[in-house]
Amino acid sequence: MPLRTDTEALLATLGVDRSAFTGGGMASVSPITGEEIADVTPATAEEAAAAIARASAAFRVWRMVPAPKRGELIRLFGEELRAAKAELGRLVSIEAGKSLSEGAGEVQEMIDICDFAVGLSRQLYGLTIATERPGHRMMETWHPLGVVGVISAFNFPVAVWSWNTALALVCGDPVIWKPSEKTPLTALASMAVLARALRRFGEAPEGLAQVLIGGAEVGAVLVDSPDVALVSATGSTRMGRIVGPKVAARFGRAILELGGNNAGIVCPSADLDMALRAVAFGAMGTAGQRCTTLRRLFVHEDVYDTLVPGLIRAYGSVTVGNPLESSALVGPLIDGAAYRAMQAALAAARAAGGTVHGGERVAIGPDTAFYARPALVEMPEQTGPVLEETFAPILYVMKYSDFDAAIEAHNAVGAGLSSSVFTTDLREMELFLSARGSDCGIANVNIGTSGAEIGGAFGGEKETGGGRESGSDAWKGYMRRATNTINYSHDLPLAQGVVFDI
Ligand code: NAD
To answer: What crossing angle do the helices spanning 67-96 and 184-201 adopt, rounded to 10°?
Structure first.
């Protein structure tokens, strides 16, 4: 079946009105073949402003709905996602080029965060705090924050939105979504699934969840509006450098989930078979287009000659291909620009003394599609392109002899998202997780850098932006905190023993 026909059938099954994906003037392209599969309608600045006004009105209603009742909407959303999993997962694969298993996995992540958020809707707890004044009580309350603008990247086209949306709606906040201009169809489909849950819920205000299709200029309307209380922006560090200061300048709140340059350290005591499999998935999975993709590997000199030849063999034999038609483990790059960035990084690595294994283009389908064999690059030291994130399957491998020096090198890049150590030595493990160990938001032992579960807070430090989403107490980012002190005595003692008698 031609990809366009397949796509249109999926969109129809998922409940998207045909007018939303035909004749709109903004092309949607599948990286699987590079062909146009739909054309969508970008929102104008006026439409974006109107969406913000609708969301602001919805906030006044939604914030007063009891949180467990808000959780009921997310429970229904989880049910609808379960029913739509196969079709939505396939659409993710078509639009983002992921394998069918990874496409379905992304929808599973949406379901998981819904389950988490339903429980959370009964656990938006504040503290009760001891006061220094007799006859007083002090406590914290958490209130809905306001309109949340979600700006998302192409590589997790739906999961990132759901992480934000499930929490925001339970926390009492309306959501406006500006998906990547490279993945508008999965956004329209996800909104259709949510719309079914909203209809079943019945009492949600209009404008509670909206989508604005378009590029950076549409996202900028959310970023600049004082009526958008929180901007949760996922994408490149380049984007975060623009968005972060603009939101800060108007004293808005931002959750920034930006680029990663994730590394692993393989120690002499490591289970090398396990390390090889974890490195292979972490570095080559999703064609190296995960924010948590493993991009740098430090291998101890005692095990280098055992592990690295095995890895090079795995790189040579991994199947690259159409993610829909074969059991290919590595699908396409998102577009020609990504392929050219990959080749530029490999050229720079060669110039810096690197030995490149793989990385060449693989001819699959029309030449509008960009498939590449993943590249493993043995580097003499951490220089040049190794210091930056190139959003493609390139793994830079370096030899180390001293663990402390390896940790120093591990931390000596701008990004701070995810990290791993492979060791069975307790001291190395604890050191890696300690205050002078990995400086990343995610630090793992004997698993790769990618594939986080929704139960933990997700995000990273430094140029990754500092934001946290998903599990643990990330919900606090979507609410405002009030400290309340109540005097039930007949006196008015002042804090710190201050006297002010009139
Ligand atoms: P991108 O920065 O090109 O675009 C991301 C989103 O930001 C898009 O929706 C885009 O339209 C919007 N945008 C760009 N400039 C903007 C501006 N000035 N104002 C408002 N909106 C703007 O990123 P991409 O190529 O889609 O995604 C890949 C990048 O995202 C990688 O760097 C990857 O590491 C990162 N990423 C990070 C995480 C994380 O959780 N840390 C998750 C996924 C992807």
So the answer is: 150
